[in-house]
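To: structure subgroup
Subject: Chain for Friday's discussion

All,

I'm putting the inputs and outputs inline so they're searchable in the archive.
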Amino acid sequence: MRTLVLLAIVGFLAQLVDGSLGMAYGVTSTTLLLLIGTNPAAASATVHLAEIGTTLASGVAHWRLGNVDWKVVRRIALPGAIGAFSGATFLSWLSTEVAAPVMSGILLALGVYILVRFTAWGMPTRNLGKPLRKRFLTPLGLVGGFVDATGGGGWGPVGTPALLASGRIEPRKVVGSIDTSEFIIALSASIGFLIGLGAGGVNFTWAAVLLVSGVAAAPLAAWIVRKFPPRVLGSAVGGVIILTNTRTILNAELITLPGVAQTVVYALIWLAWAGAVAWSVRAHLADRAAAAAEPVPGSAPEAPDAEAARS
C-alpha cells in the first residue's frame, strides 16, 4: 500500500511537470520503478502503458486551451511511433545503458543553448510562424520515439528542446504539441513491449495508479503552461534539461568526480538556473510595463488645452 501511495504522488507530480514543461513524466516515473527493483524493460513498459491515458488527458486539455499545433503533431507522431515501437522491441532483449549518457550530452548542449537564448533575448520571433519541415520533424520523431522507449522516457527531452531551438512556434504550443503527440508514441511503445515481453512483463496495478494520478494532474498542467510567460517558460525548460542530463552523465560515471565536486556542480547549476529565471521574470515585467505605456493604435494624443481645462 505504501508503494502505491508513493506511486500516486510521483505520478501526479510527474504529469504536472510534464504537462507544463513538455518533459519528465517518463524519466521521473521510470526512475522510481528502477529504484524499487524493477528491470529496465518492465519499468519502461509499465510507464508507457500508464502514459496512454495520461497523454490522452493531457492532449485533450492542451487542445481545449489552444496549446496544440496540429501540423507539427501530424508530422512528428508517425515517425515517433515507428521509433518507439522499434525501441520497445529492442529494449525487450538489450539494455541501452551506454547510449543514455551519450544522448544526455547532446541534450545538455541543447539545454544550455535554450537557457541562454531565452534568458538573454527572450522569445525568438524571427522565424515564428514559419512551418517546420518534414525533413526536420521526421528524423526528430524517429530519434525521440526510440530514445523514449529505450530510456523509459525521452520524447519530451528530445522533442521539446529541438522545437524550442527552431524558434518557429511559441513555447506553450511546443509543450502542447509534444504532449499531444506523445499519446501515439506511448501506444506504439506499449504494443512493442507487449509483443516483446508479454503481459507478464507489465505491472498493471502500478500502471493504473500512475494513470489515475497523472490524469488528475493533466488539466492543471495545461492551464499552467498557458499562463506562463514564454520567456520564463523557456528559461525554466532549459534549466530542467541541464539539471536532468547533468545528473545522468554524472551517474553514468563518464566523468569521475568526487562527491564534494558533484555537489559543487549541482549547486552552480541551481544558482545559474535560479538567476536565469529571475532575470527572465524581471525582463518580462519590464516588457509588459513598456507595452502598457505605449499609446493604443488609432487613438490621438490629448490636446494640451483640454488637459489644462481639467486641471
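Points worth raising on Friday:
Residues 259-293 form the longest helix (35 residues).
The two ends are 73 Å apart (CA to CA).

D.
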